[in-house]
Amino acid sequence: MKTKIVNMMLALLLICAAGIPAATAVPVPIAVEPRMPALIGDSPDITEMNFSKLQISPRHYGMDLMPGESDEITVTVKNPNNETVSVVPTVKDQPYSDYILDEAWVTITPVSAELEPDTEEEFTIEIEIPDDADRGHYGVQIAFTDDVMQTPYPMPYPNYINAIALYVDVWKPPVIQIQPSYMHDRVESGREYDYQIHLKNTGEEDIKIDPELKRERWHRYEMMMPAFEDDAITIDAPSVVPAGGTATVDVHLSVPAGAKGGYEGGLDLNIDDPSIDEWDGMVHLSFEVWTQPTEPFVKTFTAEIAAPITIGITSNQYRYDMCGGGSGEDDEEPSFDVTLKGPSGDEVTLNRTMAIYHGSVNLGGSKCAPPWEIASSGMYNVGHTSYVERYTADGAIGDWELNILPHYAEQFGYTITIGDADSGRRMP
Hints:
428 residues; mainly beta; Immunoglobulin-like; 4 domains; 5-stranded mixed sheet; 28 strands; elongated
């Protein structure tokens, strides 16, 4: 403002010096050197502020409490100043909290203290949550003095200098147990799959549910188009989970023919239980769509010696993260249509000499099955399975072509051995 007035006075002086009446002169813009806003430039120096700075430890603290529980914290306040400071801890609202913690829930001892220079005092702050408190995130400040940060502009709330910020998460244990919390499966286009979500109510009252599909926000605007839309999934579920009982949510997936890619989404169970966050009541859905190939995989190779040729094919199926049902052990076993063409371009006779089934089993039970349905014995969790085939053919010098058409295989590997297969020890 001062700069603006000075510039106007200079302009009037120049006009008068030129003999132009000031009353009739047309204002002429004058270039002014840019500067920061006056408020920032005129902000007070912290060394000139009148306040007492105390050393408070800790400055921040968090608690997790259920309704009816209490906890306490000891805060050390030290006076590094060269004069005595009166300390009166006072409860102040924390404006950025979801919930404001009631002052009646806080007890502070001692209620005041006179801190002489280079002395300290320990204050005990007890938080007691009433039985009827709402679940949520609470915040409160305990200000040990009324000193606030001085600012050259109005503040929506005081910024206390000598204060501790307390954060209290009031929670309740959920009465609904969900299994599984996610579904991940590899599905084939044109096929249908059924999944189940098991719920158990450990409470004493019926809990309402209303499952519906919801796109999780980080997948809602994904750049790639999903393999299919939500209407490919139908849900059949009861309206309540009875007290002390269980319920099942049936999910049916009909993969459209020709579908490609993946699908990411969520099934919001809409559980009427205040102890469950929206995210905790969401079952994540993840499907990878594959299509049975109609053309074989082709591999050409050259034999430089006239020796027998051995073909080995291995298929690995990983099921450790497939939860909820759908595809799995009930699917057809992988198989392969294998042909071999010799240097003449004609197919040669392949003799299947070996088939191997390999797998891993976890005796700890399945993480996909609900705990209340796991039997004490006979529960095995299949981690992965492998299927191996071996073929042999009479060899000859020249160029060869191997064709492999897989069925019900997520992936496969192959080996081509020219000569004695047993000597290399690399056959699957």
